[in-house]
Amino acid sequence: MNAFVKKEIRLLMPSFLICCALALPNLAFRFHPDGSLMGWWWFMMAFVFSGAMAVMLALNSFGAEVSAGTFCNLLAQPISRQQIWDTKISLLAAALFIVGVCWSGCGIARLMMLGRELNLLDLFSGVITFGLVVFSGGLWAVLLLRQVAAAFWFTLLVPGVILVILAAFFADQSPEFFTGLTVSVLGLYSLAGFFFARWLFFRAQDVQWSGGTIVMPEMRDMAWFKSASAMRSWRPRAALWRKEFMLHQSQFVMAFVLFLLHLGVLGVRHFCDLSHSRDLKFTLEIFWGLWFVMPLLVGCAAVAEERKLGTLEGQLCLPVKRRTQFAIKFFVALFLSLLLGVAMPLLLEGTRILPGVPFGSATLQKGLTNALTSAQFDFWVAIGILNGYLPLLAFIGIALLIGGVAFYASSLARNTLQSLAPAVLGTLLMVFLLFAAAMPWGRELEFLWRGPLAYFIGVPLVLLTLVALAYWNFQQVKASAQMGWRNVLAFVLAVLLGVTTTVAVYHRAWAKLTPFEPVHDAARFSLADSVRLENDWRNLTVRLPEGKFWQARFKYTAPNPLAILLGNFKAPTAEGAFLSGSNWTATVDGFWFQQAGIKTDGTLWVSPKPAKPSKLDRTERVQSKVEPLARFGSETNWSSLLGQGLSVFLVKNDGTLWRWGVTNFDLKHKTWPGLQAFTPYRLGTETNWAEVFQSSYRLKFRKTDDSVWTLADNWNTNNRTLLEIEPGLTVASLKDIGPGKFRSTASIQHGLQYQVGVRDDGTLRIWADERWDRSKKTHNNYYEWFPTDLQIGNETNWLAVGGNGEKIITLKKDGTLWLWNFHRSSISVWDQNQFEAEIQKTIPVRLGRHTDWVAISGYWGSAITLAADGSLWWWPLQNAEQYYDDLSDSSGIGPLLDISQKPQLIGNVFSRSD
Q: pLDDT tens digits, residue range 340-364?
């Protein structure tokens, strides 16, 4: 291989590799016309940039020579023009052929993954036609105009004009006829363009085209320019602004031509019937995507064109601060990116490309008026208004991103053509980093951070670094490899610094400087007392061995918007008191804030004062004092009770099941009379009920044969025994998967859902798992609970377990707490046995430093523990994003920081309630 061939390969290699890489998004980005707007933009970026890079590959053959100023030297080489032509044409044809094969292969693979019908003839004809048009257009346009930017648009717009003319006259013909006509006409155009390019090359002279530079000549003859020059008024900044706009005059000309062609496309779409040709309709509907190329070309020409023309050195010598020159150049590039990349397609297409965006000023004015309530700005209403404009803001962001990255690439290049490939590659890299900032590498590295914090720390840091590098590059008259490596090093350091800072802030690194737990007071409980801690979301109960019950109702404090954004989740407070008397067996507290209980002598008790209607409307967020209970009835054979809705289920010593209360009551129009107004009535005729209890926040019944039942509407009833104990009340058996004699139970998630518990022998075991029921023939409820018995770990000294989800906490006999993290970063193989094996191999981590814990209970995404001094502590187990799902769903932003992992005090058993 001689030096000339090697040089030609190196000339085409960057654009060729990027073209092949851009073919891969066809496998990942799927276009759905009714899908999300973000999916549309992904498809548009892949479609537009890949086609643009194919055009740049064709332009590179002669365009790189013209941009670098080596075209004249090429003609002076001791090689025949025929050999130069044959070498360039052969290598360019081979490169485009390989790119076409990659595109076709990825397109076929995508259609196969989507299950679509393959039409190889249409696919191959489209790829071949586009390749031939780009091949010939990239040759003749460069050789004729000797300007790469102008040649780029001529390569695209001339075939576009031909396609619009054909659509205007023949769109109503059959699809086969129109496709054949289009392929034939564009094929003839490609053939004519190829021979025209050959004719131009063999007659090319050392000087470029005598037609001059493609600019807007009328601007040089405008009267106000002449008068300004004659008056000799010194306005350096105005001159710089005018010079920057004149630098992009060729882009204005091409934008005007694209505007006229777009008007033709709109006319064809409006007046012609395109239903016969789906491909033509699709092409014309996404034609507006070509405007995305304008910010790319504007940014690429900003600095590189100055270096090519040799005017950068002179500009740096002007008596104007360099930062002022850079700022003017940078803001002109961004302004033109918005004007040509956003304003023009919106002007021509309207809301069709941004459906649902409230462009009217009346809508914004109404939203702002509603946001101002009582002279205070409503944060959530403002978020709602912002959500309506997110598609438009994203559209603007894409144009600014393309223009900004292209500007940075231009600061590294010697000419416009040289900056195009790095600009496309840099844009794709920045898009990848923006998506990775929201959730780094999906679930593989989500332990770093979750949520949008990186957009406030890492992303601004990287963007400011790129602006600073562009400013430093702008001051370098000549671009060099050393300058490029310095930029790469600075960019990598900025990314690493942004990741490190984001991780440190998200995990509250400053909290490591303060003690993890406060000091506990003197012990008043011990593990030998067998204290039990229970909660039912609204109420907290501490059971002492002598039959004393301490009860409290949770008091929730709604966090303000700033606290939510910062992930400052506050634990509920629990202020309660001991029930009067002792020898209590069980108590229950319904949402109506009326307590009921059973004593060891079998008597039934209830609070004498039912809640007021005003309190019923606010349910969980109302704190009510623990009041003394009064005896109800004269019976002494009650053994178990549990509340559900507006009633209480009770079990007697004779094995009968009873209900006390009602199933429905008009709380809005009637005053709740209290349980005292109702008489317990028997359910069913069976006499083998042992107890009613709650497990995993579900109401369950146990019979004397140890079988466990639950309400049929609370569990999957497929293949289960059903028992109707009264009209409208049916219970279902749980296939012996009840917790049995477990001391305490919890629910965990690791791929699937599992029920775990601490058995009397001190082992932590899985007693039920969720499996695929292959016998099911319906399309609903694909999973069933099945009994199992698998020990987790090897230790036999556990006392209790609390929590739910991917993390739980267990209590040891030595009074220590241990955290189990069953989080799975990714699921490559959905294997039940693998999940269970991973759970069994999980190693717990010591939580805190105290050894005086006596009880534990699970609570919504957290756990509550009781210390020996009577203090109650709330331990967060989930992250802030999981706690604030409603915030993420409504606003799409989520918390910025993770919740503090330190325990929070929620009350003390021995504190007196107000």
A: 988 898 888 877 777 666 655 455 5
Tokens of 110: 């995508």
> What residue type is 753 in one-letter code?
Q
Q: What is the DSSP string of 380-429?
A: HHHHHHHHHTHHHHHHHHHHHHHHHHHHHHHHH-SSHHHHHHHHHHHHHH
Q: Check the CA dihedral 308-254-15-462 and report its sign.
A: positive
For residue 907, what are the β-bridge partners? 872
Q: What is the pLDDT of residue 854?
A: 92
pLDDT tens digits for 705-737?
A: 878 888 876 555 555 678 888 887 888 876 555
H or E element that contains 509: none
Beta strands in 579-686 (DSSP E): 584-589, 595-599, 604-606, 630-632, 638-644, 647-652, 657-661, 681-683
Torsion of CA 411, 415, 421, 425, to 10 degrees: 0
Distance from CA of residue 471 to its chain's centroid? 33
pTM: 0.70
Backbone conformation region of residue 69, classed left if phi is above 0, alpha if psi is from -120 to 50, else beta? left
Burial class (CB in 10 A: 0-12, 13-18, 19+), 255: buried
pLDDT at 497 > cutoff 90: yes
Task: Quick: pLDDT tens for 402-445.
Answer: 999 999 999 998 888 788 878 888 887 888 788 777 766 555 66
pLDDT attached to residue 310: 83
Cβ contact 4:90 at 8 Å? no
Among the listed residues 782, 785, 804, 801, the one whose alpha carbon sits nearest the alpha carbon of residue 861: 804
At 545, the pLDDT band (50, 70, 90 cuts) reads confident
Tell me: the pLDDT tens digits for 779-828? 444 556 677 888 998 899 999 998 888 889 999 999 999 999 887 766 55
Beta bridge partners of 632: 604
* Cβ–Cβ < 8 Å for 821, 807: yes
CA atoms within 13 A on the CB side of 334: 14
What is the tally of helices (H) and strands (E) in the chain? 28, 31
* DSSP E strand stretches across 461-594: 532-535, 539-543, 549-555, 573-578, 584-589
Give 632's DSSP letter: E
CB 655 within 8 A of CB 631: no
Coil vs helix vs strand at 724 = strand
**SS3 assignment, position 23:** helix
Straight-line distance from the first to the last Cα atom of the chain, in angstroms, rounded to the nearest whole number = 93
Provide the pairing of β-strand 744-750 with 871-876.
unpaired
With a CB cutoff of 8 Å and minimum separation 6, the contacts of 73 are none
Q: Which residues pair with 874 in a beta bridge?
A: 864, 904
849 and 883 in contact (C-beta within 8 Å)? no
CA distance 585 to 638: 10
Residue the block writes with tokens 């490609």: 190
Integer angstrom CA distances of residue 233 from 328, 443, 486, 498: 20, 62, 41, 47
Sign of the torsion formed by the C-alpha atoms of 880, 884, 888 and 889: positive
What's the rounded mean pLDDT across residues 485-490?
93
Cα 448 from Cα 139, distance rounded (Å):
50
CA distance 540 to 571: 13
- Ramachandran quadrant class, 907 (left: phi over 0; alpha: psi -120 to 50; beta: rest): left
